[in-house]
Amino acid sequence: MKSTDNSLSTFGLVLLVAGQLLPQIDSSIVNVALDHIGHSLHTNDIGLILIVAVYGLSYAASIAIGGRLGERYGKKRLFLIGVIGFGFASIVCGFAYSLSSMLLGRLMQGLFGALLIPQILAIIHSSLCGERHSRAVGIYTSIGGLSFVLGQSLGGWLVSANLFDMGWRLTFFINIPVCIFVFFFGLRAIPESQTVETPQMDIDGIAIFTLLLSFILVPVSVGSNWPALWWLLIAVIPLGWTLYKLEVRKERLGQQPVFPPSLFKTPNFIVGASYLIGIAMTFPGYIFVTALTLQSKLDFTPLQSGNTFISMGLTFFFGSILSKRMSAKINNHRYYLIGIAFILVGFITTTSVMYWQGSHLQVWDLVIATGLVGFGNSCLVSSAFRTALENVKQRQASEASSVLNTVQQGCIPISAAIAGTIYTSSNGYGDVFAMSYALASLSVILLMVGAVSVKRVKTNKMRMDVA
């Protein structure tokens, strides 16, 4: 099974996909196990928000650096370091007996996940071509929906089965044999690839971006308990301006900034990035508050909670397959608006069914609601990436992908924090009301992004027509 040339074998691709599943499944598994984790670690809803948010913050802040480290030191090497590091971080999470030790483990998971994920597509690009390349990319892009379904179901089953009396801890320990398998077989089956030109790291740009994210995330997550932290938001605009000026100067000097200003001048790139922000600011928050309500308020078992989201993952998967054909017929921007409609109807259906069914709610009652949200999300994701990348030059394709992934991952913890904070603060009025209020707030964000983006599309079209 040793790779004798620079070509990626089928077994090597399987190992890459297994590595891809590690952080993607882990996110959905943790959502299912949150209620049990909270009781075990004696933490409240704020602590649960932080468990989700810390992982997202460390992942978002590190993913761009992870891609450049792979180009500098070798994609295979960084992939394997990420895999074994993720396994060690999972051990820390599995043995956590306090909120602080869990947050340390989640921080490490985000860091090592950001090392391994960027290398997967890069290895595919550098070691495959033609039909094999297209098939591998198709497998890579479609695995997201399947990993969500697998994570929800597997996480729910592991917690409910309580194998070896480990409970929720097994949802982390299950990563360890996978990491060992991928690491040892990957040493031989995955080809090494490394760029001739050594990329620059832009450490200061990433540091400012991390500070900016933190100054949004911290007050949103725990500001209700410590109101003084809301003052951190004042620093967001100066930090954003500092980051912009820094990246402009670096690009002018011929360096390689993480957020190249010239990229944002590409027609419709900002529109596509805005679309992506709209998705990342709503979808994770929906999953977080829905899972929390089902388990902590409606007494769903983790297995029941996980199974509730199966239709969401399946409709996302099939929607992703249909997206290319559909967006070609009705264009990306209209397809995005259709996705918004599906998601809003899904939000309304979710809260309505929960209200009318109450304590009699069953898993199958939410199949249509979560399915609508999943299909709508597939419309939004495909439209966002196609819109952002349609005019990007080939030489900036890698940078564009890195920027979009960084923006997307940066918004995910903010979404969970916003939804969780609104849910917690309004919980005194009733569980369903709190959830409805949180989802209504997320809907406003999605509609605002959609409205602003559509207006910008029209403006760009008018400028291009004049030109």
UniProtKB/TrEMBL annotation:
The protein's predominant localisation is membrane
Q: Which InterPro entries does the entry mention? A: MFS, MFS_dom, MFS_trans_sf
- The Major facilitator superfamily (MFS) profile domain sits at 12-458
Q: How does it sit in the membrane?
A: Multi-pass membrane protein
Pfam families to which the protein is assigned, alphabetical? MFS_1 (PF07690)
Query: Looking at the keywords, is Cell division present?
Result: no
Task: State which residue ranges cross the membrane.
Answer: 47-66, 78-97, 103-124, 136-158, 170-191, 203-222, 228-248, 269-294, 306-323, 335-357, 363-385, 406-426, 432-454
Keyword terms, alphabetized: Membrane, Transmembrane, Transmembrane helix
Its subcellular locations are:
Membrane
Q: Does the keyword Membrane apply?
A: yes
Q: Which residues form the signal peptide?
A: none
Question: PANTHER family from the xrefs?
Answer: ACTINORHODIN TRANSPORTER-RELATED, MAJOR FACILITATOR SUPERFAMILY MULTIDRUG TRANSPORTER MFSC
This one is known as MFS transporter
Gene source species: Photobacterium angustum
